[in-house]
Design goal:
The chain is an alpha/beta fold. Helices cover about 30% and strands about 25% of the residues.
């Protein structure tokens, strides 16, 4: 049975333009746009009319870096695919790209199938997967080709976490060479994990056990060095490179220098690096544990380099690296030893709102907000124009956004399955009002109306910046 929804009277904002337009939705897709008040728009009828007067009509967010149910440090990320995707919907994100994990000694297929099973029938919004490569060998290199054909077109490697996810330069080079021939995109966690482990051991031996030392041992220069090394290895392989969760000015400079040479190097940052700092890691008692993530939070002066990188397009994407662990029962595994604090922050629900606040604060424009949160991640990971824009033929992933609503971020009002907010007490302007996922209303005027299982798995194309 055909259903029609009409979103009337809002300011439609995409990465390309802003227009006062009505949006007609049919059978889960955008059917047409027409200028508000014109004869064409006035003639439209629908089963459901949503009044967007004085509000923005924006594409649903695409969060290309989440970790639902991730096993880490002897525990699991506290959001399941069900709770995490519901929280994402509340925050105006309608597509996530999560990470399936290959375990050392096992094949990619085994890891991918485990993640298919975790997510199947659970998600409130659409989802896709990247693949974490923990064990690069002849067999897994061949599997990469098969995964690309299946729509898993990006592979994450780690220069950090020796003994867990770590790959050495030779393994990284071989994976990059493979991706240069199969069309895949290598995503890199760029930190010199071998050197960091030495500094961790030395700090603990000195009795430096508090959360703030997590930031002190994971030095800016070791992020920059690894970023530089990853770029050079990608040059040797003739492969594109996407550097995840860039946190510091010197790493931005490495990416900028590579892009100035015309190299296909891309960078992502996250809200925590734009809005939080080492001041949070140094909060008294054990409170700083709430802010332990890797790459770590940096001193505030690094934020301007990140904002500048976003404005100049040397950084292209803001994702969350959403990987929540409860303060009680998970983060406190590291009391007396910061190296045992599970690494990760909750954020999938806050990204769109925080970036809107950045518009009001003058860091980015409205269209750039949509570009870095919706359109570019969709293009980067082969989902555009199905996702990331409002245009005829696109999936009707549509957010009605009130730019004037005021809210205070808090654990008391969030929907992520975690016992604290990384942004507790922060007052921001702008709030998601109504969210449609493929034409189905999943948040209706600040009430959740979605369901587990609505979200569909999406096979992805290859990176659209390389076509």
């Amino acid at each position: 049975m055909s259903t029609r929804t009409l979103v009337r009277g809002g300011l439609v904002i995409t990465a390309a333009d802003e227009t006062h337009a009505d949006v007609l939705i049919e059978d889960g897709r955008i059917a047409a746009l027409a200028a508000h008040g014109t004869a064409v728009a006035d003639a439209w009828t629908a089963d459901r009319v949503i009044d967007a007067t004085d509000k923005y009509v924006i594409p649903g967010g695409v969060d290309a870096h989440t970790h639902m149910e991730l096993p880490f440090g002897g525990t699991f990320a506290s959001d399941t695919f069900e709770t995490g995707t519901r929280a994402a919907a509340w925050g105006g994100t309608t597509t996530i790209v999560d990470f399936a994990v290959q375990s050392v000694g096992h094949g990619l297929r085994e890891g991918l199938d485990a993640w298919y099973a975790k997510a199947d029938g659970k998600c409130a919004i659409d989802y896709a997967f990247h693949m974490i490569l923990s064990d690069v060998n002849e067999g897994t290199l061949k599997e990469m080709d098969l995964l690309v054909e299946e729509g898993i077109t990006s592979f994450k490697l780690f220069m950090a976490y020796p003994g867990v996810f770590y790959s050495d330069d030779g393994q990284i080079l071989r994976a990059m060479q493979r991706s240069s021939s199969n069309g895949g995109l290598i995503m890199m966690h760029a930190e010199n994990g071998i050197a960091i482990d030495v500094l961790v051991a030395q700090a603990l031996a000195r009795g430096e056990t508090d959360p703030r030392y997590h930031g002190e041992v994971r030095k800016v220069v070791l992020e920059a060095e690894a970023t530089h090394r990853a770029i050079q290895l990608a040059r040797v392989a003739g492969a594109p490179l996407y550097v995840v969760h860039v946190s510091a000015d010197e790493a931005v400079a490495e990416i900028t220098a590579a892009r100035d040479k015309g190299l296909p190097v891309f960078g992502e940052t996250c809200p925590q690096y734009l809005f939080l700092s080492t001041d949070n890691l140094a909060e008294p008692g054990f409170e700083g544990a709430k802010y332990v993530c890797s790459t770590p939070l940096r001193p505030k002066e690094h934020q301007e380099a990140l904002w500048r990188g976003l404005r100049t397009n040397d950084l292209q994407v803001v994702s969350t690296d959403h990987c929540p662990f409860c303060f009680t029962g998970q983060k406190d595994l590291g009391r007396g030893d910061f190296s045992k604090i599970p690494n990760g922050l909750p954020g999938v629900e806050n990204r769109m709102d925080l970036l809107h606040q950045a518009v009001l604060d003058g860091h980015i424009s409205r269209r750039r907000w949509i570009e870095i949160a919706c359109a570019t991640p969709a293009r980067m990971f082969g989902l555009y124009p199905k996702k990331g824009t409002i245009a005829p033929g696109a999936d009707a992933d549509v957010v009605i956004y009130d730019p004037h609503a005021e809210q205070t971020l808090s654990v008391d009002t969030q929907h992520m399955n975690v016992d604290y907010s990384a942004y507790e007490g922060r007052r921001i302007t702008g709030q998601v009002q109504t969210v449609l996922s493929r034409g189905e209303v999943v948040v209706d005027g600040r009430e959740f109306t979605g369901r587990a299982g609505h979200g569909q798995y999406i096979p992805r194309g290859t990176c659209q910046y390389l076509d």
